[in-house]
Amino acid sequence: MWGEAWVVHRLRRRLEADVFEDVRQRRRVLEALREAWDARRTRMGGTALVQEPNVKEGVGGLRDWHVVGWVARIGYGAPSVRAWCAEGMTSGAAYELAHAAYDFLLRVRNEMHFTMGRRVDQLTLDVQPVVAEQLGYRDARGMCASERFMRDYYRHAHELHQFSEGLLERAWTDIHGPVARWDRVERREASRAQASLAAWFSRRRSRARVATFSPDLSHAPEPLFAIVRGHLVLRGDPPPGALWILHAFAVAQREQIPLSDELKWDIRRRLLDGAGDPSRSPEAYRLFLRLLEPRGRVASTLRQMHELGVLVRVVPEFGRITFLVQHDSYHAFTIDEHTLRALEALDRLARRGAAWDPEERRLSELFESVREVVPLYLGVLLHDIGKGQGSGHVPRGVRIAARVSRRLGMDERARQEVVFLVAHHLLMSHVSQRRDVTEESVLAEFIARITEGGRVTDLDQAMERLKRLTLLTYADMKGVGPGVWTRWKGAMLLELYERASEYLQRRLARSTDDAPWGERALEQIARELATEFPTEEVIHHLAQLPERYRRAATPERIAEHLRLIARLSERPVVIRWRLCPERSCTELSVCTFDQRGLFARVAGTLTAHGANILSADVYTRRDGIVIDTFWLTEVGVEQPIGPERWPRIERDLEAAVCGRLDVAAAVRMWRLRARRNRSKTSSRAPLPPIVRCDAEASAHCTVIEVKAEDMPGLAYAVAHALEALGVNIAFAKIATEKNLAFDVFYVTDATGRKLAPARVPLVERAIADAVRALSAPSLQPESAV
Amino acid sequence: MKKIESIIRPHVLEAVKDALQEIGIVGMTVTEVRGFGRQKGHTEMYRGSEYRIDFLPKIKIEVVLPDEMVDAAVDAILRVARTGKFGDGKIFILPVAEAIRIRTGERGEQAL
Question: Do A737 and B53 touch (CB under 8 A)?
């Protein structure tokens, strides 16, 4: 301070009297300090590793040191932090590190003010290189000056924050007493919603419980740990060596409880004192690998380990990327932070969320189906480990990953998987977004990379690999920064996965037995249904149906169809009903022999009974057997067709198929009745129907698309028009979305070939007219039957 | 001045960008979009016997240019973005009433 001495003296006297001597006032000030500490931490991003840290107010900033000083003075009467630490609050080594950090931050802040000519405390991206240069940093070994500077900055800020937090925890305990300690911790946990340290912990409100965990330490037969008020503590003094540290993490992970601050302090102190290295023993590595097994719990454990400096002891190579900045606006975090966030994204997939996007839900399914997750987690942990030394981070990463996985004692197969993931962690991003994945050649090339040029021949291993790589790609993108992962990219990634997995199954089947497409798939389905149907029958059935059917039908559905077909020997038409409450409709399957106008007759009969066709699948076997599946509701209400109606509809369906029912008349009757009953629903003219024929979409059929406003009897009207023109329906897909109907018909002419181009306009017009006639408002009597 | 909006397959973005730059177009805006056309993806991969209109990922490129460059730009895009398969996308041409460069206030074709 600079000025009149008497002002300073008076200030000091007032402070002594009003604050330092008054116990209640001290408490109040300390409370306020504590709340401000929590609030500041939350406000400043919860971590020191933000891209543009605030030197003064940020996590690990100058304020940390100031608060420690204030607490020392107000709570303990110590004139300085050094004096306070000399009293035994912390080890000398810890103090020196923290003080060096404080010194560094001061220099940085001063440099910022000098260079920018004004009071700036935020180390923005444009300021960083300037300050770096001023402080004497230079480009070296693949890192530019500002990257090397920021790495040091993060190291110091992190150190300072660890130091301050630890000290303040003890201070709060001392001031408020040990009983209140746990309340304090719990309250703090709650307020740290965003902080990385406590975010993942679930709350265990058990009473004091003893963990009967005994590690394989022959010199410590009694359990090492206890759980007190939901936190893990050591019973007694820390054992020699450092294996117990890894055990602590294992127990905490298993019980899903946080480490107590005391335990964290013990760990930190043991590491600082250097009396024990948790690494360099096979036992330690084995313990570490076990930490990578529980799905959904790995990231939080590894983050804790990293914050306490344990991770870097077990995997020293991780130290290269700790606090390592990637200088572009794309990467919001340092590489170690990015890696931890990628792991967290992976963990989140293990927890099913109801409000997820379909892409993440699918990825979650993939994650569940992966059998071995340790290579995946390790792959994510190491995927960027080669960064920070200039270009070529992928091959370098591969070498490091090979070394690390060998040191950790993984078996050869697992090592290969880890190395593969690190080597190809950019592949799927690139292929899905930059290459045409609908091209066979592109898929072939991609799969060749997955199988390493055919070295991997086992389908299961290749599929596992593909799934893990997909998940790694997802995790990597999620961990880069907000907004990098989008549903758009997710859709692209999954498209590549689905196509590649399909190709893979085909490919590897071909490599084992030179069968044409589908043989292997056919055999698979036949095997699944072998209990009920002879294999030849299944294959015979599938061989007569188009690709579409094989791809779309599940084994259950195929079995259903086969059962229907089996009953065709007893009666001309086989019908099966099923209520679908989850879709509020009724499913109707009709199996019979094909004939001219069959679909029109069935659709018309349904319409005449007041059934609204929501959607329909029509398949015709080459031998003439037809399987039609309809999903129906009652016209006007979104209710399924009740079972009481089924017998009558069945009777009429059979009559219609056998030619005994005049379907056209029945439909007309129903329409007249319906119009009389229905009040004018809307005065607006219905949308004009859109009918389009496509001669290219299918190899054997002309595809007719009809888009119209959904009306009861629409399917019948279209089918009837087609029948009148002598056009045969081989396959149909009817669907309604809100009040629009999208009907697709795959048709042939009477000879079974595509429609002649000259006929197409006629057909289109006829259909459009038929649809328009449906909505004609006039109640003109139809021509006499 | 006209604006060309093209919906294209994502993987041809680089090629389209290069082709447009070759004919002298200096600026463009690119968005990741989702959409569908007539095919609605139903001959494609999404499995299951449900008929779903799926929104397929595409890229939208927007370019504003002088009238005389429109034909060359359209030709360039067609040349490079066409694969011949369903899903190639569409090009739309819209009139532009005015263009202004924010930094300098220039208007009209000078702002492009």
Answer: yes
CB contact under 8 A, B9 and A436: yes
Is the same domain home to A217 and A108?
no
Q: Print the domain residue range for A280.
A: 212-350+361-437+465-480
Q: How far apart are CA A373 and CA A270, in angstroms?
A: 31
CA distance B59 to chain A (A): 10
Contact check, Cβ <8 Å, A433/B10: yes
Is B33 touching A (CB cutoff 8 A)? Answer: yes
**Cα–Cα distance for residue pair B31/A499, rounded to 1 Å:** 25
Query: A498: which chain B residues are within 8 Å (Cβ-Cβ)?
Result: 45, 47
What DSSP state is assigned to residue A175? H
CB of B102 within 8 Å of any CB in chain A? no
Assess if residue A346 is contained within a domain: yes
Instruction: Kindly state whether residues A626 and A644 are assigned to the same domain.
Output: yes
Tell me how far apart the alpha carbons of residues A591 and A574 are, in angstroms, rounded to a whole number. 5
Judged by DSSP in three states, A483 sits in: coil
When divided into structural domains, chain A yields a total of 3
Q: Which residue of A has its CA nearest to B41?
A: A697
Look at residues A113, A114, A117, A107 and name the one whose alpha carbon lies nearest to residue A149: A107
- pLDDT digit string, tens, across residues A265-275: 788 878 877 65
Domain check: are A184 and A133 in the same one? yes
Q: A747 with A768, same domain?
A: yes
Flag whether A528 is in a domain.
no
Flag whether A327 is in a domain.
yes
Query: Do B62 and A415 meet the contact criterion of CB atoms below 8 Å apart?
Result: no
Give residues 447 to 486 of A whose Cβ lies within 8 Å of B: 486
**ipTM here:** 0.73
Of A783 and A247, the one with more pLDDT: A247
If asked whether residues A182 and A312 sit together in one domain, one would say: no
Q: Please tell me the predicted confidence (pLDDT) of residue B4.
A: 97
Across the interface, whether the CB atoms of A551 and B38 are under 8 A apart is answered no
**C-alpha pair distances (Å), A445 with each of A102, A129, A428, A490, B93:** 54, 42, 12, 21, 37
Q: Is A270 helix (H, G, I), strand (E, B) or coil?
A: helix
What is the pTM (predicted TM-score) of this model? 0.59
